[in-house]
Amino acid sequence: MGSTKTIVFIHGLWMHTSSWQQWMYYFNEQGYKTLNPAWPGDSATVAECRSNPASIANRGVTEIVDSYAKIIATLPEPPIVIGHSFGGLIAQILLGQNLASGCIALNPAPLKGVWQLPLSVLKASFPVLGNPFNFKKTNSLTFKQFCYGFANALPEKEARELYDKWTIPAPCKPLFQAATASFAGSETKVNTKNTKRGPLLITGGEKDNQAPPILGKASLKKYNSSVISEFKLFEGRGHSIAIDNGWKEIAEYSLTWLKKNGL
Length: 263
Known about the structure:
Blueprint: E1 6-10, H1 21-29, E2 33-35, H2 46-51, H3 61-73, E3 80-84, H4 86-96, E4 102-106, H5 119-129, E5 138-139, H6 143-149, H7 156-166, E6 170-171, H8 173-179, E7 200-205, H9 213-221, E8 229-234, H10 247-260
Parallel strand pairs: 1-2, 1-3, 3-4, 4-7, 7-8
Antiparallel strand pairs: 5-6
Helix pairs in contact: 3-4
């Protein structure tokens, strides 16, 4: 038997890293080792993050990517990376740098070069991008904003439970870096021309307001098609795809895809 494969889970904006717990249990049971490192500045618990937002402020994409790269460097071999939302973009950056053996990007933020900007994305991002003075600050979603950006496909009761359990303040800088990537900055650039990278799966949720499927499909088109690159649409699903009551469907699809590609 070869060495046990490791999966590194990468959370996105406004989600605490502990939101990956059920995924980690699931993949542990399937024989994988799992890690869920926090972003720089995040505290160990949701409550601590909420009480100390200043430590999360002014963290940019490159700093976050570098923090994961350092952790990956301590592993015996490149891991599989699974990221959600902005974590999905970070996972793709790591894959492009040959730091991962394969990547699953769940409803990811768009990479540099994706120009499509649906109205729902503008509305979901406006609480941050509407004020340029937010650049070095943190932002906490109101429940109403969470319902629109994450939980629009869920009953209000479940949306409230997820909001209370997992949401934390997020640095605003990554959103600004993604929003201005088309004409300035390279923080969200992915090496999509890399033909030595591992397999890539990008997912989309049909009802996702935060990262609509059009963004994931546009990102996929940037990649060299000589390397495995796939897109999977989940009908009726929103941005909460990794944490809501239907998470296991996504995890099971992810496992099947990994096995199919020898990961």
